[in-house]
Predict the 3D structure of the following.
Amino acid sequence: MLISKLRRVLIGSPLSSSHQQHQLIPKWKALPVLAADALSSVAYATEEIVIPLALAAATIPFATHWLLPIAGAIVVLMFIVAMSYRETIQAYPQGGGAYIVVKENLGQGAGLVAAAALLIDYILTVAVSVSAGVENLISAFPQLASVQIFFCIWIILIVMTLNLRGIGESSTVFAIPTYFFIFSIGVLIVNGILHNPHEGVNPIRDVMETNYPEIGLILVLKAFSSGCAALTGIEAVSDAVPVFKEPKAKNARTTLMLMVLILAMLFFGTSYLVYAHELTHVPGVTLISQLNKLIFGSGIFFYVVQVAVVLILFLAASTAYADFPRVASLLAKDRYAPRQLSSMGDRLVFSNGIIGLSMMAIILVIFFNGKTHYLIPLYSVGVFLSFSLSQAGMVVRHWRLRQKGWKSSIALNGFGMLCTTIVLFVVASFKFTHGAWVVVIVIPAMIYVFHRTHVHYIMFAREISQSHYDMPTCEKVMDHVVVIPISGLHRGVMNAIRYGMSISHDLRVCFVKTDEESYQRMQAAWDDKFPNMKLHVLESPYRSISGPILDFIDDVSKEHPTEFITVIFPEFVTAKFHHQLLHNQTAWLIKLSLMYKKNVIVTSVKYHLTTT
């Protein structure tokens, strides 16, 4: 009871399936939820460009003058990618992003590569944004440096809890800090441009007239690849189209372009000021903090902007929490991930995916000591891999369907694919030795896990199939009630029904209806196999499985208060113990609840699988 009450306080009361429509959000709420990741890169993307240029400046004077041209190239790339994803949103208003696009147009294998890249990207989004937020907090309050990892873990747990409450509530919470960040950085940029304390510094003139030093193509590409972290999160809108209110596609496209416009202005504006004031990388103090102190001093406005930066970095994880569970659920429905990830929890969010994402992000934070600079090299490879595959999938789709305007669409997506592919090779080449090799290894490993999971589910479905199974007749019948909860018809269920018929003539098979589609399939299969036996259908508007079954058993107990009731659970035992983790353990939880009920006998009819 205590755990249940605490859960209600933290997460809220269950939401009925009929409440799904109320969880859709308008553009003004979708922007802060889905743009937080992209906008948060303003806090560290410029610094990632400056770090390699600052190192070169020790031997090459004015090497940091390349900051603005590189930032300008990244801004152009932002709009190219955004325009490409507008086409994706228009073609796939049901969402799913790169995984759905690539799977349908380039095949399942390529789709799994895109899915692995996306999942890695979202895990790193949480780790990077929270780590960067804590680093900015420490820049303002250096005395907190000793508890850096502790702070990271607690922030992840707080953001996880907010997202478990549902996107309707979390979007309202996230809106204020995101808009506060946009306003604060906007004021910082405008104030920095209007009140330049360095007399004689004219960045616009320098850009137009200065002869840039010969720093070499390799250094330029290295700085460019580091700054491409600014593009992370642009794909988030296309992944989450289903969360928008109608018209979904139109609202998503508008939100995407507004997000990129704001991102481009804030990113280039801060880069401009860093260049104008000749700021450079200082270990232990973030570049945005240096810029903030230079413009506002140590007064109240410095802390206001610093708090805005910290909050947006913390809330940037919300983008991953909106998209990671959705992609994982698509994989689970295709039987490439544990099926527990496919279903929504009682707050109409993919709770298992949210919790899994949090745990993996915490492990990364601990492993990399909460250092953003160590995590960034792992970040961009997955992002641009998914960009490139998604655009390639759209090119194939345009060519295959050849709908109205397909030539301009194929040119747009083709150009986007070319740009992101070139950037992918640049990022992978220059970041490989700095940690990108981890992603190159992890993606094939994840694809192998996807494949083995799929093989298990296919073999499992094949082995328990009941289509060619004939029910043997039984002779011996006993006088008491038998209840058999089932989730479908398969060989394990057939054996349980056979056993139930052998011990009682009063057999009550019950099925929990959580959605209309699965219920219709179940009813059709039941009528085909048992036309003369009643199937007790239990309504579950909150998608609970155990609750309706326990209530049904209570009702039977009241109907027959002096008789024993036998509850038979059809169960299967996998050939390998670790495969059991891929299946729900609902029966075990119900058995635990029935342990203290009088006159209720609980038993299992096990079906042993012999293959993987």
